[in-house]
Write a structure and sequence with these properties.
The complex is a heterodimer of chains A (about 80) and B (about 160).
Chain A: H1 11-16, E1 17-19, H2 21-27, H3 32-39, H4 43-50, H5 58-67, H6 72-75, E2 76-78
Antiparallel strand pairs in A: 1-2
Chain B: H1 5-28, H2 32-51, H3 60-93, H4 126-154
Helix pairs in contact in B: 1-2, 3-4
The chains are: A mainly alpha (about 80), B mainly alpha (about 160).
Chain lengths: ~80, ~160
């Protein structure tokens, strides 16, 4: 189910927000499709997040972190 | 149990074809109420069908893109609509108001055979208004899908990027 909370996104934010989803996917031997199904979004959304084109909502970020059983900061970090 | 996305598109196609048929019947019998009721019923059917589609293609990113596209469509559309309306007002104000000038004894009244053009808005022009509104509706749809494509590219990725 899609989250009602949608984070505001602009180009500056996208370049400042980094994530390690690809690394965690590789560690858990998961495809984008697998992860998308596990957290309830489309594969394109996972791909867009990995490429830094889209910043997920807090709700989705927590779901991804919980799926990998780590803290949210270990996957998502903000670069000043 | 939901219906599949392709079945949904097929359903929309069938409904559209039926609507075209009813439009023709409506035109033949000069009964606009037929097509008006048919369109409302068609939209209700599409609404319920859409609710039962399996939601495997929609998530927060697609909602975000739709939101951005709708906002941009509104921002562009109101400017276009305002400019067209302003132009229409200028044309309308430059037309005769169909008021016969007073004739005084000894003065020359205008010859009765002078033909005034139709007023810009009135019962005589309702068919033109329908085409105009339809054109505006097409413009909204065109703008919305254009913006959806644009934001889809901006906040998304193509299908061939699987790793």
């Amino acid at each position: 189910m899609a989250s009602g909370f949608i984070m505001a996104v602009n180009t500056e934010q996208v370049t400042a927000m980094k994530n390690k989803i690809k690394v965690f996917r590789a560690m858990h031997d998961m495809t984008q499709e697998d992860l998308a199904g596990a957290v309830g979004v489309t594969r394109q959304t996972i791909l867009a997040i990995e490429k830094g084109k889209y910043i997920p909502s807090l709700d989705l970020a927590f779901r991804i972190a919980r799926h990998f059983k780590v803290n949210i900061e270990e996957i998502f970090h903000y670069e000043e | 149990m939901g219906i599949k996305q392709n079945v949904f598109y097929l359903l929309i196609g069938i409904i559209a074809l039926i609507e075209v048929g009813i439009f023709w019947v409506s035109l033949q019998f000069d009964k606009p109420i037929l097509i008006q009721i048919a369109v409302i019923i068609g939209i209700i059917l599409v609404y319920f069908a859409r609710k039962s589609v399996e939601k495997g293609y929609e998530d927060e990113r697609t909602q975000f893109i739709a939101q951005k596209a709708a906002m941009s469509t509104l921002e562009v559309f109101w400017v276009i609509f305002f400019v067209i309306s302003l132009g229409s007002i200028i044309i309308g104000l430059n037309r005769p108001l169909h008021i016969r000038p007073p004739s005084f004894p000894g003065s020359q009244s205008p010859p009765p055979e002078i033909e005034f053009p139709l007023p810009l808005v009135g019962p005589e022009t309702f068919n033109h208004l329908g085409f105009f509104q339809l054109g505006m509706l097409c413009l909204i749809i065109f703008l919305y899908y254009g913006f959806r494509l644009y934001y889809g590219r901006k906040y998304g990725a193509s299908d061939g990027d699987e790793e």
